[in-house]
């Protein structure tokens, strides 16, 4: 009937007039997506040089890849180039990075990716020491399925899938998931 009302071929003379005495509302029936909880953050194992990281945080909210200065010193790779960049942390403090480390090779599964890191003198979270932001995720052609808790990295016609997230794997097991992770905003 609704479709007929909207079409121009409908003849209104055949309808009776109805007077409404109370407020009426129309309900449009359509499928509504089920509201789901926060899937948490994704972590992936990776290797830089001879140092294996069991968990590197993949953060779509980060516009850069972040490595604490202490981790950079442990790795002993490359030379940082100076930068005039300023970072605003979640607590609204502003910090100047030590520099930018270019063309760092990161092994993720069987894949090898090159990315840049901003080196910041900050507290190290030993469990999740580095943050891989959008620059790395786009390089790895990442596909994130939040509903199923999967992150896929692709290279050419091959892909590797990581299952689970911090919330998915650890909260269900009762582990503390309040990791130190500076939220960044970039100010130049």
From TrEMBL:
<dbReference type="Pfam" id="PF13650">
    <property type="entry name" value="Asp_protease_2"/>
</dbReference>
<dbReference type="InterPro" id="IPR021109">
    <property type="entry name" value="Peptidase_aspartic_dom_sf"/>
</dbReference>
<protein>
    <recommendedName>
        <fullName>Aspartic peptidase DDI1-type domain-containing protein</fullName>
    </recommendedName>
</protein>
